[in-house]
Write the structure tokens for this entry.
Amino acid sequence: MQKNLYKYAASKTNMDSFKRKHSAEGDYANQFLNHGNYLAYGLAATALWVLGIPHGFAVMHGKTRRGALVFDVADLIKDALVLPWSFICAQKKHSEQEFRSKCLQAFMDHKALDFMFASIKSIAQGAKEL
């Protein structure tokens, strides 16, 4: 699914040759994806810390990955908020600061942190019933 989302975003922003690379110097879309993902990890870590849940608790990302739960929680918003802004800002040749500003504004506009809190609480309450 992730590859299809990248392909769709790339086609809509006229970046048909896009390939996801985590170390992509000079490739704004990849740089913005990396930057935005780290912003999402920060929100996720905040939500988990406030709720008193260890961020390294492994759920989807496996037992050997330090900070695994942070990745799972960040996944709740990355595709909806980080991915589109990464491609839009890359297409418009925005700076890192402009991208960061757009991302943080999207997090606020869509209440990403509130959504993370609600999702974590809902899942935790469901687990109590098992």
